[in-house]
Design brief:
The protein is mainly alpha-helical. 77% of the residues lie in helices and 0% in strands. It contains 9 helices and no strands. The longest helix has 42 residues. The radius of gyration is 23 Å and the shape is elongated. The protein starts with 5 loop residues before the first helix and ends with a helix.
Length: 192
């Protein structure tokens, strides 16, 4: 099975193995089998969109949390909610304003990319960026600490931000190209 990617194997072993359990949970939330299956499939799609899927400690619990959050989103958007669904809605603790696990995972992935780009910056540029943007020091204090002028600090910051945006956009474009290539290859294999 050389055509299987690592994520496919991980998904089969750690997520899809619990499909019936996940589906039953979704049905208990929305009370409609078709709608429950849509929730489960959307949760699976969100898992496949994650860059750092392998770092998820408990994939089954993570998937269940995504299903739960998707159900809450549907309840919030619904114009009419049946009474029995309303009771389920109250038990789901709608007040939870924390980001969903998939959003947290995507944010962590993006942060890792930013850290990688910052590590590749010239040392003085990186130092100015850390002091100003991470530690929050005003430009005058950054200049004093680095023993340079405020205008030089601003120059370092402008160059650092341009470099950061350029490299992140390039990485994003490369990832999209790789994803498109993967899908094209998969389609060709399925046609043969």
């Amino acid at each position: 099975m050389a055509w299987l990617r690592d994520i496919d194997i991980w998904f089969a072993d750690h997520v899809f193995a619990y499909h019936q359990q996940t589906r039953r949970y979704a049905i208990s939330l929305v009370r409609q089998p078709e709608e429950a299956e849509e929730l489960v499939q959307e949760a699976y799609a969100r898992l496949f969109a994650l860059d750092d899927w392998a770092s998820i400690a408990n994939p089954h619990a993570f998937t269940m949390r995504i299903v739960r959050n998707l159900a809450i989103e549907r309840f919030r958007r619904a114009e009419v909610v049946r009474l029995d669904q309303g009771a389920v809605l109250h038990t789901l603790d709608i007040a939870d304003q924390d980001p969903t696990p998939d959003v947290v995972a995507m944010d962590r992935s993006e942060l890792r990319q930013v850290v990688k780009v910052m590590q590749e910056m010239p040392p003085r540029m990186r130092e100015a960026m850390v002091l100003r943007r991470i530690e929050g020091l005003p430009p005058a204090q950054v200049a004093e600490r680095m023993n340079i002028s405020v205008s030089t600090v601003e120059t370092h910051l402008i160059k650092a931000l341009r470099l950061l945006v350029h490299r992140l956009n390039r990485q994003d474009a490369r990832a999209k190209t790789e994803l498109a290539t993967t899908w094209e290859t998969k389609e060709r294999l399925e046609r043969s």
